[in-house]
Amino acid sequence: MSPRLLAAAGLAALALAGCSKQIIDPSRQIGSNPFLPEPKQFLFPPMGIANIVGWKAGQMPTVPAGFTIAPFASDLAGPRRVLGLPNGDVLVVESGGPGLEGINRPKDIIYGMVLGASHAAKPPANDLLLLRDTDGDGKADQKVVLASKLDSPFGIVVQGGHLYVAETGDILRWDFTPGQTSLGQPTRLTDLPKGTIDHHWTKDLTISPDGSKLYAGVGSNSNIVENGLEAEEGRAAIWEIHPEDGAKHLFATGLRNPNGLTFNPTTGELWTVVNERDELGNDLVPDYMTHVQRGAHYGWPWSYYGQHVDKRVKPENPAMVKKAIPPDYALSSHVAALGLVFENGSAFPAQYKGGAFVGEHGSWDREKPNGYQVAFVPFTNGRPSGKAQTFVGGFTDKDFTVRGRPVGLGFDAKGALLIADDGGGVIWRVTPKVAAAPPKPAG
Amino acid sequence: MSARITPRATLHGVPIHAMLVPFPIVCFIGALLTDIAYANTANVQWTNFSQWLLAFGTLFAGIAAVFGAIDFFFGSRAKGSGGGDRPLIGWIHMIANLVLFVVALFNNFVHARDGWTSVVPTGLTLSIITVLLLFVSGHLGGRLAYVHVVRRDER
Lengths: 443, 155
What we know:
The complex is a heterodimer. By secondary structure, chain A is mainly β.
């Protein structure tokens, strides 16, 4: 039986199971006080699997009036992270998971076939690329592989004469100055929790504005501790790492799958987007973005959105539930937020100043698609100050015909927004038609 | 007097149905035991055990049912009592097993949930119901085999 047929059979079984489910408007779950329905449990959880068809020639995502979008680079193999360098070069990480998860339950076989049916045209490489636009036409015309066959790389940072790449099991550091087109041998700065399962394998990375500390996001090793609590050691957390000697300690915990780590240029606080737990319904639990407080606990696995207890977790831990603080801003359920960047001295118009762009990879644990867009959240004085809105859309149709899936975001030296689209294998570049202010290099 | 049945699906004279039924019996009783172990420890290995036992139990129950139905509906009733109605307890055995199969199938999906609610309370309850139904249908199946089925040496 083909995977796609099986997925269809699964959805038919869902219909037969008669779990008629109300599905709410995602806008009710956007903002600081999201509507949280009662958790539900299923015989077959709600699902909608992306049928990735890619972009046909001339097809483009949609952008608001006053902007243009064009591919900066295409035909890439799973681009997930993008970083604009001050000299105009762009670093791109192509990556796929390590594929370590074994089959522990009959469910893993079914999920493997159903979710495995969704894949991009090109299998992901595990390479670090440098793209260069030599003639300034907004399209990369040089592509150099800086490092290849990395171990599921994800986060990248360039600062203070170094390039840092977070692989799924460690952080590598190279001597690097923007302009360089080759790398020497890396130093293994420190290891990161990988282990033998590595369920959420994307290790994102950022550095404090003064360059004194690195921060790495480490996602949980399960949906909701179905691999046992002992598999979650050091996970669902953000680590603080010394960039010189690699010494590290936990910075914040209870963050199920934190990605898009970045510092808010207005407040100097660390922000992240977090993917919340699945299989509690179409509309639970909202993914979110939040500033991350040192030593704070955000709930996972024992509770969500503050102190809403998850009954699936035993033994209970009332002490940790009591400690859990709610995040700042809900992005609605199952959007799979993986990228976050703050506008900072870009060429964008005034209403975008200081706001956040969120790369939403798109849902699977929901009957109707949610996410599959780059959202914009306006900020005032370093705090969200309005409803998230679609900034770049057109990645999916209502029937899960998916052309692309946004992941990582960044601004380039000319102040244009770059979007890594691992479904379409494209780096998109969004520019305002008329630059509002003289562009400054991205911070 | 109802009919005595001569099984049709046999291997060297042994009904295939009879060879298969121990699999679901052992698997479903095993799943109840591992469910009880999980409910007492919250150690995920026990719910994982339950999920495999339920999956294999349901699979073999389905295969055994096919051969049982072949014997029941197509087995010869000519010998022994010379035709007549199929035994009433055969019908009850079949219906009890169909209910058991549906309950076990649902239990597979309940057990596929992540964590504690894969077992407590619904999964464990369904496992208890499955084993209780096993006692009923197993006893009826035994009576069918020893009272109503024509043995090889009688043929």
